[in-house]
Design the sequence.
């Protein structure tokens, strides 16, 4: 006698199971669908569109009609001195900002991990800078660093330095460093809060045992605190590098990429191509380079510190 | 029964009234609504424009104008994003240097029929039509013209025994005055040498005064690195790097910084538009009687900056072209130009507006003098990119990153590359 299972066959069983699965999880799929559609619409579609655009070029300058151009956009871009200079500026921007934020974030996290009066206030003040929108922070610092009306030059002058009228954001020797300083001020609170959370998870017994064994403060920091912080540091590095590569508003308000192109990062160059000159294919090409550079930096970092460190930190 | 209960009757009646009100509220929505984007940024300009539109709506009760203010800084990016996103305004103000770009990418509606049928062509300054014309078609109607004149501290000139500048004064006279004024917390000049648009306006004046041009006659080759261009750039940046008559911060200054410094009583001479002069007086009312106005100095010849705004209709399926054309015709009329421009301190593009006593002040007199030899920028689609290259060249030279020649040579190389594409 042939049972109903045999009569519908294996394909039929799979189809029935699928239908049952869909029926069982229908509500869950429906709940997830809007989020998935949004993510596809605002992340994956623009990403794929940007990658596609980077292989096209306008028929004539400014035309919205595009023709396939192979890798010519990339060839032109890599031959362009402004682009090469932007890669250099971006790398300095990333590494200097990262070094500053990690150092300050770590110092503040260590200090705020101790119990003392006013700890909450200091933590709040540090985080205020991070919470503040980039544009607001940049406008405030433009005023502080103003050559004629800025309080910084007035203070320095009163301290006996010949800083009268010095254009911190206009001088090619100081513009990038001044902008990096503002960036560190703006962002180290984020690193601090991640490290502080991690510090508060370190068991006190470890320090107590080390102290009994005669370990000094530095040794405790070097052999207990720092290894325990590594996963949190790794996560901070990855998040901050991605942020620095895409950062636009702060630099745009502070320097607009000048003087010359001394502070033109890849993000500012993308804006120049895409919005100022209406050259969307070149902007997309720089965008793809930013994506590749992010991947390169992150993969390089993961292969150095090990994936497990990052996974532990998440 | 609930259907006959007085409470239900009342509720039903209220429901019917609510529906009627909703239906009635739809009636005004049938009036044509025009989206107008403008770059009026100061309160008095916004107020003057509001009054002007009220007048238009009174004359055209079937048209309602919704205004959106867009800051000059970054307006091109906003317009481009709106057009590419399929939601441009119906009508807008458009800076003359961006006309070719938007006409070139097919964003604007040709207005040849509107212009030819209205008699507007003869009413406006002849040179203002150049910026409106792209590829032999008219895409805009001149609205406001812009130029720069020198505003100077008359009281300081008198105090220092300097002769008051007059029409025909030269670069050397300007430099001598700046040097004499400079010192003791005062600067001779404070024009931006940053990446601000103002840099381009100032360089264009100097290039023209020294007999130079941006492009050759074919329009396919950049020539602003000619000896005339290099000398113009060296003179401008030399005010900072060689003669030290400008504050070091000009490398990063915007128009606002320059005006703020002048209003703070720290600058002797500045190149400004009537609108900027109004900003100075608003910030420092006590300066009003201490200011003098004169045309810009000359070198080999007289030349001035010609900018301004045109009125355009955007190409979009939702644009009501007839209503948009009516609005443009009104804004370009004598009635539309005089009161609004005088209150907002703009220069009307319409010649007969200047016959009105509202435009009899010293500032307007000097501006009309300057406008006689003011020159427009090349009307090409690549101009947006080329003007940025020039700003970078000025900024690099002022920051002593490169020499004037090297900076302009680099800019011309990139400009030529763009012109060939």
Sequence:
């Amino acid at each position: 006698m042939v049972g109903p299972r045999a009569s519908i066959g294996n394909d039929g069983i799979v189809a029935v199971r699928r239908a049952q699965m869909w029926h069982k999880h229908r509500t869950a799929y429906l709940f997830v669908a809007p989020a998935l559609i949004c993510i596809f619409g605002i992340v994956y579609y623009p990403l794929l569109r940007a990658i596609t655009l980077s292989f096209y070029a306008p028929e004539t300058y400014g035309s919205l009609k595009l023709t396939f151009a192979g890798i010519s956009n990339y060839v032109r871009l890599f031959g362009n001195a402004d682009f090469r200079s932007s890669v250099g500026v971006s790398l300095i921007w990333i590494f200097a900002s990262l070094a500053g934020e990690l150092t300050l974030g770590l110092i503040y996290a260590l200090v705020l991990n101790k119990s003392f009066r006013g700890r909450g206030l200091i933590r709040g003040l540090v985080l205020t800078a991070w919470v503040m929108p980039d544009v607001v922070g940049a406008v405030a610092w433009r005023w502080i660093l103003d050559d004629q009306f800025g309080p910084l030059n007035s203070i320095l002058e009163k301290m006996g330095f010949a800083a009268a009228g010095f254009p911190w954001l206009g001088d090619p020797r100081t513009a990038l460093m001044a902008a990096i300083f503002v960036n560190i001020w703006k962002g180290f609170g984020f690193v601090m809060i991640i490290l502080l959370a991690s510090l508060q998870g370190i068991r006190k017994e470890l320090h107590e045992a080390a102290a009994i064994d005669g370990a000094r403060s530095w040794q405790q920091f070097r052999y207990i605190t720092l290894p325990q912080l590594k996963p949190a540091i790794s996560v901070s590095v990855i998040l901050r590098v991605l942020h620095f590569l895409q950062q636009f508003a702060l630099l745009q308000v502070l320097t607009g990429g000048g003087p010359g192109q001394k502070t033109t990062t890849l993000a500012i160059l993308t804006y120049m191509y895409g919005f100022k000159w209406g050259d969307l294919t070149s902007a997309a090409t720089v965008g793809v380079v930013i994506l590749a550079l992010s991947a390169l930096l992150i993969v390089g970092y993961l292969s150095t510190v090990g994936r497990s460190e990052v996974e532990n930190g998440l | 029964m609930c259907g006959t209960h007085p409470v239900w009757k009342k509720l039903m009646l209220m429901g019917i009234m609510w529906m009627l009100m909703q239906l009635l509220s739809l009636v005004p929505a049938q009036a044509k609504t025009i989206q107008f984007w403008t770059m009026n940024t100061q309160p008095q300009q916004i107020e003057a424009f509001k009054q002007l539109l009220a007048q238009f709506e009174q004359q055209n009760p079937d048209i309602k104008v919704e205004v959106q203010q867009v800051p000059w800084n970054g307006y091109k990016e906003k317009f481009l994003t709106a057009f590419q996103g399929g939601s441009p305004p119906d009508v807008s103000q458009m800076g003359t240097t961006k006309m070719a770009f938007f006409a070139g990418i097919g964003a604007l509606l040709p207005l040849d029929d509107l212009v030819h049928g209205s008699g507007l062509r003869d009413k406006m300054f002849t040179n203002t039509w150049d910026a409106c014309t792209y590829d032999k078609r008219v895409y805009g109607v001149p609205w406001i013209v812009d130029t720069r004149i020198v505003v100077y501290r008359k009281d300081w000139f008198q105090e220092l025994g300097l002769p008051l500048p007059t029409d025909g004064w030269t670069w050397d006279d300007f430099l001598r005055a700046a040097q004499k004024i400079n010192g003791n917390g005062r600067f001779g000049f404070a024009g931006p040498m940053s990446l601000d648009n103002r840099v381009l306006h100032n360089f264009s004046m100097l290039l023209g005064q020294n007999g130079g041009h941006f492009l050759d006659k074919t329009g396919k080759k950049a020539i602003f690195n000619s000896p005339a261009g290099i000398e113009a750039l060296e003179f401008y940046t030399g005010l900072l790097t060689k003669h030290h008559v400008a504050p070091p911060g000009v490398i990063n200054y915007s128009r606002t910084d320059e005006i703020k410094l002048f209003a703070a009583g720290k600058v002797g001479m500045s190149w400004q538009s009537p609108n900027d002069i109004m900003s100075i007086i608003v910030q420092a009312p006590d300066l009003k009687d201490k200011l003098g106005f004169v045309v810009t100095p000359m070198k080999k010849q007289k030349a001035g900056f010609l900018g301004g705004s045109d009125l355009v209709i955007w190409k979009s399926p939702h644009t009501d072209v007839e209503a948009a054309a009516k609005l443009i015709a009104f804004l370009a009329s004598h009635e539309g130009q005089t009161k609004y421009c005088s209150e907002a301190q703009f220069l009307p593009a319409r010649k007969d507006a200047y016959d009105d006593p509202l435009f009899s002040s010293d500032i307007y007199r000097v501006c009309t003098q300057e406008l006689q030899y003011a020159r427009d920028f090349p009307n090409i689609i690549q101009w947006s990119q080329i003007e940025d290259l020039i700003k970078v060249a000025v900024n690099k030279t002022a920051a002593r990153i490169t020499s004037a020649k090297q900076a302009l040579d680099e800019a011309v190389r990139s400009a030529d590359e763009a012109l060939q594409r």
Summary: The CA atoms of residues 2 and 8 of chain B lie 7 Å apart. Chain B has a mean pLDDT of 90. Residues 6-29 of chain B form the longest helix (24 residues). Chain B has two domains: 36-70+88-146+307-375, 149-305+382-420.
